[in-house]
Amino acid sequence: MTIKHIFSVAALAGLLTACGAGNNEPADMENAENGENEVNQSADEAANNDDHENEANQENEADTADREDVKVIAHRGASGHAPESTTHAIDKAIEMDADWIELDIQITADGHLVAFHDDEISRTTDGEGEIGDHTLDELKELDQGSWFNEEYPDRADESFEGAEILTLEEVFEMYGEDVNYYIETKSTYLNEGMEEPMVQMIEDFGYEENVIIQSFHQDSLQEIAAMNNEITLVQLLWWEVDEETGEMTEWLDIVPAPKDMTDADFEAIADYADGVGPHLTYYDGTEVIDEAFVQTLRDHDLMVHVYTVNEEDEMERLIDWGVTGLFTDFPDRLQDVLDNR
């Protein structure tokens, strides 16, 4: 009931009383008071309903904000479900509505950019040696899928056997502009000069809006920023923890420990990058970042994409802290967490 209606009913009650029902005044006054009480009660109920509706709308808006603001980044594709960096993992990530497909890029002996994480090829293929010591033709002969079936028999699939190592160009051609690519310039001390052909390929495909490039190597990102300032860049960070003292040291000395970072440190990153990719925990379980650190990054207008988070309780906590994206091997888990908030 609106305020206008309330005033109208109250005015009518007053008019009837003023016109006088004569000898029935006490009864009329009681009826009028009862009417006013009913009106007030209705108004209170309407106000309560409005409050509940506003609260529900605010909750829905918060849920929508979570879904829109927290990006699902499929770590090497849906690598918890299929062999990493293969079409199988990428396909599953797309099926699971991942916002970004993360791939590490390295250079072959004959200059091709390929999607492969390790410097050594023995963990995920039937080959040996460093990836940069092999030509693309040699790498294409390798089986990059059978290892997954052996390592994870509960998730094994015969179709994974014989999966090929992919070039970045093949990925772009295969999945097109409807997919977003989160690319890492990997081990730049081994993959020297990879930035220029990578940027050139992104420009040739017109994928500046479809690509984020991340790296632990600050000079790599700065070089890319100088080549093309339309490409979004993320500075990866990794803090090692001294087991005896608990002291934290960023492994490439990009920044101090999180608690010791100053505005100047954040601003230095913001000069060339659009975001930061920190990890939550060290190998021994020590947490290296906290909510205050995340909020400070946000205050400096930097995206916060934490890697690699596979447990739902950690996903929930990091989302509550205000992160803007999470790397995960299981994009379906993160989707469930976001959908249920």
TrEMBL record:
Designated name of the protein: Glycerophosphoryl diester phosphodiesterase
GP-PDE domain boundaries: 70-338
Residue ranges of coiled coil: none
Phylogenetic lineage: Bacteria, Bacillati, Bacillota, Bacilli, Bacillales
Keywords: Signal
Keyword Transmembrane: no
Pfam short name (any one): GDPD
GO process terms (BP): lipid metabolic process
Residues of the signal peptide: 1-20
Region (Disordered): 26-68
Acidic residues biased stretches: 27-36
Keyword Signal: yes
One Gene Ontology molecular-function label: phosphoric diester hydrolase activity
Domain of life: Bacteria
